[in-house]
Amino acid sequence: PDVIIEAQFDDNDAEHGQDHSQDLLADDIKKLSLDTxxxxxxxxxxxxxxxxxxxxxxxxxxxxxPDKFLQRTxxxxxxxxxxxxxxxxxxxxxxxDKNSELFKKCAMFSPVDHRVPRAYVSxxxxxxxxxxxPEDYSNTLFICRIVDWKEDSNFxxxxxxxxxxxxxxIEPETEGILTEYGVDFSDFSSEVLECLxxxxxxxxxxxxxxxxxxxx
Length: 216
Prior knowledge:
Elements: H1 11-16, H2 18-43, E1 87-93, E2 106-111, E3 119-122, E4 140-148, E5 156-166, H3 170-180, H4 190-193, H5 206-211
Parallel strand pairs: 3-5
Antiparallel strand pairs: 1-2, 1-4, 2-3, 4-5
GO biological process, one term: mRNA catabolic process
Protein name: DI3L2 exonuclease
Keywords: Cytoplasm, Exonuclease, Hydrolase, Magnesium, Metal-binding, Nuclease, RNA-binding
């Protein structure tokens, strides 16, 4: 069987350089080979030792293999429904490469949820003083909506929707979570409010109490 040797090196090993590390690894492999050879000799007394063969049958056509030896694979061919809202909560920061063309046009959006990709956002959507004072917004939560993700790019393309406020505060954090999951938390419309009792204070009538189970 294949053997993986995990070596740990400290600062003293680093001072000897890479050659010293390779020598240590080679010595470990030689020692392991000698130990294995001795075990084979000990097990081979009284006859010729035969190494155990792999359990996988040797066949040329993979279709003839039993199902337990096959790794099933699949391919996404169509998206029926987009479950994610494409909105994410995160922070904005300047790009690392100051000499690139993107540095003058875009900023980097880093989502709090690591399942969501990082995205380029236009500097025009960022606060006006962000390019000059990015440290002022290092702890500010933003909502970004992902609009595109090209196949040849490591980062998606997003559009900043709004600034939520300081990270760690209850209201901005709550609003960010509700927005990410597509929960409508806007005020009720006048049509909905008109369905409520208008004569206040409202009390439950005795007739309703008589036919309902009180769970208060």
